[in-house]
Write a structure and sequence with these properties.
Strand content: 15-25%
Number of helices: 10
Structural class: alpha/beta
CATH architecture: Alpha-Beta Barrel
Largest sheet: 8 strands, parallel, barrel
Radius of gyration: 17 Å
Distance between the termini: 12 Å
CATH topology: TIM Barrel
Shape: globular
Bound molecules: phosphoenolpyruvate
CATH superfamily: Aldolase class I
Length: about 250
């Protein structure tokens, strides 16, 4: 059976002291989880987190990755650089990067390709804004965002993780209902099925105000293979409860 994946997105939070305390609490409470677990941390803390996690049950991820291999790209971090820290995942196309950093569908697809070429699994985020949902455009938007990644990555698409993150649910406390999330996940699964015979093994995560109280019902949906967790990933008790719900 496909193991679920629970990935924390720390966003621009943390400090040397806070990270150590958070990771020590997680390591003390996690035992042998029934699902895969990862934390996607700010790049400046990758070395610290790699040392604390010691290649154990919690894997490491980045929150972004350059589409370039190296050279004159001030501020960018290349896949090879990230790989040096034992990285397993890189989030690409988070709505905050699309919204505040002008990332286009094409750039997100190129970042996914760059990650895959280095053996890093991209967690590709797609999701509609509230205005788009209210205009009945949810399917159209998420399909367009995913189509760019499919067309750039060809048969490698079976190696990506996709996270459906409705923008209106991120950081708002207003999660999609399990039914709303499953409906969109089914659309994404069908789109992936049309692109690869291996679509069933692609992990489709839900993200957007997932917490200890709503995780179990979201994770029980047939096409929800895990969660991308923001706020609750910074609270050890809550993150551990979500991991337990993914058993
Ligand atoms: C996220 O930032 O990817 C996210 C899902 O945030 P939150 O869980 O806080 O809504």
């Amino acid at each position: 059976m496909k193991k679920k994946l629970i990935a924390g997105n720390w966003k621009m939070n943390g400090s040397l002291v806070a990270n150590e305390s958070l990771l020590q609490s997680l390591l003390a409470g996690i035992g042998q989880p029934a699902c895969q677990v990862a934390v996607c941390v700010p790049a400046v803390y990758l070395a610290q987190c790699q040392a604390l996690l010691k290649g154990g049950v919690i894997e490491l991820g980045a929150q972004d990755i350059s589409s370039h291999e190296g050279g004159a790209f001030t501020g960018e971090i290349s896949p090879a650089m990230l790989k040096e820290f034992g990285l397993r995942y890189a989030i690409v196309g988070h709505s905050e990067r699309r919204q505040y950093h002008g990332e286009t569908d094409e750039l997100v697809a190129a970042k996914a390709q760059s990650a895959l070429a280095s053996g890093i699994t991209p967690i590709v985020c797609v999701g509609e804004t509230l205005a788009e949902r209210e205009a009945g455009k949810t399917e159209e938007v998420v399909k367009r965002q995913l189509a760019a990644v499919i067309s750039t990555n060809g048969h490698c698409i079976s190696e990506v993780v996709v996270a459906y993150e409705p923008v209106w649910a991120i950081g708002t406390g207003l999660s999609a209902t399990a039914e709303q999330a499953q409906q969109v996940h089914a659309v994404l699964r069908a789109q992936l099925k049309a692109a690869t015979p291996n679509a069933d093994r692609i992990k489709l995560l839900y993200g957007g105000s997932m917490n200890a109280a709503n995780a179990a019902s979201l994770l029980a949906q047939p096409d929800i293979d895990g969660g991308l967790i923001g706020g609750a990933a910074l609270k050890p008790k809550d993150f551990l409860a979500i991991i337990a719900a993914a058993a």
